[in-house]
Amino acid sequence: MIGYTHVTKRFGPLKAVDDVSLDVAEGEFVAIVGGSGSGKSTLLRLANRLIEADGGSITVEGEDVRSVDPVAVRRRIGYVFQSGGLFPHLSVADNIGITPKLLGVAAADIAARVGELLDLVQLDGAAHHDRLPEALSGGQRQRVGVARALAAKPRIVLMDEPFGALDPLTRDALGDDYRSLHRKLGLTTVMITHDMTEAILLADRIAVMRGGKMLAQGTPAELSKSSDAYVLELLRTPRRQVERLNALLPQSGAA
Amino acid sequence: MSLFADPRWGEALSHLADYLGNHVRVSLAALALGLVVSLPLAILTRNRPAPRAILLALASIVQTVPGLALLALFYPLLLLAASVTLAWFGVSFSAFGFLPAMLALALYSMLPVLRNGITGLNGIDPALIEAAKGVGMTPQQSLVMVELPLALPVMMAGIRTAAVWVIGTATLSTPIGQTSLGNYIFAGLQTQNWVFVLFGCFASALLALAVDQLLGLIESGLRRRSRLRTGLGAVGIAALVAATLVPSMGRSSQSYVVGAKTFAEQYVLSALLTDRLEAAGLSAAARSGLGSSVIFEALKAGDIDLYVDYSGTLWSNQLHRTDIKPRTELLAELKTTLAKENITLLGELGFENAYALVMPKKRAEALGIHSIADLAAHASMMSIAGDYEFFSRPEWAALQKAYGLSFRAQRQMQPDFMYAAVASGEVDVIAGYTSDGLIAKYDLVVLDDPRHAIPPYDAILLLAPKRASDERLQTALKPLLGKIDIATMREANLRASGNDANSSPDAVAKWLWEKVGKR
């Protein structure tokens, strides 16, 4: 569905993305993991041409993204922004319905679709429909962000650290809910995260980036066979945390 | 008498429809033009730092030009443009009144609109602009659906500031021939009619407040997406404009326009002329408070039909002559020269309003000063005050040259305050006006000019080219010629400088006619 081939992007002297290749198959959930400045966000933005590549080629659903109108590409791909990216002057319903509106869908159809989506992301439609984003909690905002990304029935969803700023409970719930939406709707998802635990729990495959380079990619099991020290260190972190937690907390979880 | 029983309130009120209507029309037209130019510029330059900086610098420079000067500058500028279009395309336009006022005010409105527009648009969280792009908006859609709505509060604050500035500054458009609420203020200041000054200030403040509130209503409507509020605000502004159009539609276009410069004597004389025309069954309106250089051009262009000027003023300002001729010769030569431009010099009113050096009578006697020649010996220890133009006029140069005058200090003053200043000893000598009633009031003396350095300043009646063969007009005016002597005019001017109900130009004009009409 999405194919990066030897893609390079420079910002001045800095190579933000350096000769990266990555293929995402239909229905797959791929997480790109890396620290800040690793180039993971740049890589994601290249797919829907929020940023233009300097070298290599990128295909989306078999088409080279440079051969099609970037606006059309963006309307076809759902995008979930860090901390929502909701328009503060628009109601929840108007935020969700924005892409269908841009595509010229009739108002009545948009209204019906917004209702469906609020159900889908498990928000109480009656209570939230007309609210402004500022009246929502962080988790609710991100649910609206997901609903907005899904509004024009995209086959591909890109997510830029979607759950990073949420409290752990909300984050877990939202991740799980999204994971089941991904499966139910047959989506192809690429998610950026700095959190390996989240990546392991949600994604089918994980790509690890550092300094603009793709260090490794594969299932968690495949990654654990990597020879790269950084990749192994990243993978060890969740387990080490679990061990420490187990040592600190009674096994049954009874507090 | 209680403050509000003063009949001048009623007189002020009777002009309100005319002054307010013109004020609203010119202000809102200027604001609209300013917005139409500034908003697209703000949008176009929002991502271009270099043109943005240049634009803001230019707008700031405009803002540093005092409002009065900016308005005054547009008059000659447009006059030039009008003569160019006449030469090239055979069409001309009036450089008087509405057009220069609107253009200058529009320019004045640009800085707050530009600055707030650019600030508002640049202050938007870049993440939201990326989100707009990410959900599939084109740059235009992003502008209209996201950036402009988010910048709206800051932009509207700029528009509201511009509205208040423009409405306030529009009061200064009176001297270039645009009737406005400034007519109250200019007339009131010149004739010491504080009722008019207050009325003008309150009216323009209330107007500014009302427009600001209506714009605020539109803003909150846009922000809350309330069609009701937006609609109410828009209807309010539209109603304001519509209301001001009603009285002007009823006005006859046949009406004669009587011009007046910015001092009390001119207000009285224009009221007198207007009364005489109406008495002869002609409809007439006064256009008061015009700048000294504006008024002659306005007559030439036919924007006003008649006014009173002074022979010496035209001699130096229009004919650019520096030589001095005896009174009758100068008048004859002036008349033939003006006739070449089809301007009719109908005749003299009978008095002179010349510049003259004036000082307290007692002091002059004590020092043995009778003439300017006597004064010259004492001048180096004395200070002199004149009006805003005197020291740059040729008369001053001629006086200095003829008598070798050199004062210790010279100051510029509002004419009305000069007389009190010299009477109290704050300055030693003033360049006053011979017809000023305050000369007698403060017991001052006019110094002789034995070397005739100051040209004669006979008050003369001028008619616009299009009135050159207007018999009815000329018949109505002829009874005034030669009737007003200097003593009568001084008394009239003194009355006009009072601060009571009988001191309005209309009241003084009636008194003046009663005094001279039967002669």
| Multimerization status | heterodimer
Question: Beta-strand percentage of chain B?
Answer: 5-15%
What share of residues of chain B is helical?
Answer: 55-70%
Shape of chain A: globular
* Silhouette of chain B: elongated
Cα end-to-end separation of chain B: 35 Å
Radius of gyration of chain A: 19 Å
Largest interface, C-beta within 8 A: A-B, 20 and 17 residues
Mean pLDDT of chain A: 91
Number of helices of chain A: 11
For the biggest β-sheet of chain B, the strand order reads 7-6-8-5-9
Total strand count of chain A, please? Answer: 10
Give the N-to-C terminal Cα separation of chain A.
47 Å
Unreliable segments of chain A (pLDDT under 50, ≥5 consecutive)?
Answer: none
The radius of gyration of chain B is 27 Å
Give the SSE map:
The complex is a heterodimer of chains A (255) and B (519).
Chain A: E1 2-11, E2 14-24, E3 29-33, H1 40-47, E4 55-60, E5 63-64, H2 70-76, E6 77-80, H3 92-96, H4 98-102, H5 107-120, H6 125-128, H7 138-150, E7 156-160, H8 168-185, E8 188-193, H9 196-202, E9 205-210, E10 213-218, H10 220-223, H11 229-248
Chain B: H1 7-44, H2 49-64, H3 67-89, H4 98-122, H5 126-134, H6 139-169, H7 182-190, H8 194-223, H9 227-250, E1 256-261, H10 264-279, E2 284-290, H11 292-300, E3 306-310, H12 311-317, H13 327-340, E4 344-352, E5 355-360, H14 361-367, H15 372-376, E6 383-386, H16 394-403, E7 409-412, H17 415-423, E8 429-433, H18 438-441, E9 444-446, E10 458-463, H19 471-477, H20 486-496, H21 505-516
Parallel strand pairs in B: 1-2, 6-7, 6-8
Antiparallel strand pairs in B: 3-10, 4-10, 5-8, 5-9
